[in-house]
Amino acid sequence: TSTKQITQRIKLKDLDEKLSDNFIRVHRSFLVNKAKITSFKSTHVLIGTHEIPVARTYKSVLKEL
After folding, report:
1. In which order are the strands placed within the sheet that holds 50-53?
2. Phi-psi region of 48 (alpha: psi -120 to 50; beta: other; left: phi over 0)
3. Taking the model in full, what pTM does it have?
4. How far is 3 from 10, CA to CA, in rounded Å?
5. Distance (Å, rounded) from C-alpha 17 to C-alpha 7?
6. pLDDT tens across 45-59, in order?
7. Up-side HSE of residue 24: CA atoms within 13 Å toward CB?
8. Residue 40 burial (CB < 10 Å; 0-12/13-18/19+)?
9. Phi, psi (5° rounding) for residue 43?
10. Closest by CA position to 16, among listed 25, 7, 26
11. For the segment 8-47, what is each residue's pLDDT rounded down to a tens digit?
């Protein structure tokens, strides 16, 4: 979150299924809120000052943005 880090003991795949369509998977370890993305390139997504890597298998997701 923007204020703190939250750790959950749930598979990211299960969390992805529970969250709304506002969230997209960009890496096997990361889900991001589309509304919070400030910019993106083929290799990473920027959310504010945080750079999150984009895996090759999820690059097609960015084309939808």
Report:
1. 39-40, 44-47, 50-53
2. left
3. 0.81
4. 21
5. 17
6. 999 999 999 999 999
7. 19
8. middle
9. -105, -15
10. 25
11. 899 999 999 999 899 999 999 999 999 999 999 989 999 9
